[in-house]
Amino acid sequence: MFNTTVAPGGDLVLSGRLTADHVHGFEQTLAGVSGSCRVDLKDAAMISSAGLGALLACQKRLEDTGGELILYRPSRRIREVFRLVGFSHIFRIEDEAVDTP
């Protein structure tokens, strides 16, 4: 299961497993993002390559207008994936990694 909500401060909050089955809806959500936006990953259990592609496409679009997508509170596991695919050089990643079981 995967869910994206918008927190009161405007952060996108991801929860569950972002798989290829969910990426189309996630891309639609990201299409509505402008300026800069923080994506809270505390409750994200997994992000597939399709989800990584959606984040990257949004980041590139926002950078063209002076904004950015900020990745916030990833688990250690997701932070390691970001490091391995080079996202740590593309995105600002905030907060310490959150341990997950």
Summed up, the domain count is 1
Oligomer designation: single chain
Find the structural class using helix and strand composition.
Answer: alpha/beta
Share in helix: 25-40%
Calculate Rg over CA atoms. 12 Å
**Mean pLDDT, nearest integer?**
93
Unreliable stretches (pLDDT < 50, length at least 5) are: none
- Count the E strands: 5
CATH class category name:
Alpha Beta
Report what the structure shows:
There is one protein chain. The protein is of the alpha/beta class and 101 residues long. The chain has a single domain, classed as Transcription Regulator spoIIAA (2-Layer Sandwich). 34% of the residues lie in helices and 30% in strands. It has helices at residues 23-31, 49-63, 76-85, and strands at residues 2-6, 12-18, 37-47, 69-72, 92-94. The protein has a 5-stranded mixed beta sheet with strand order 1-2-3-4-5. The longest helix is centred in the middle third of the chain and has 15 residues, at 49-63. It is globular, with a radius of gyration of 12 Å. The protein starts with a strand and ends in a 7-residue tail after the last strand. The model has no long low-confidence stretch (mean pLDDT 93).
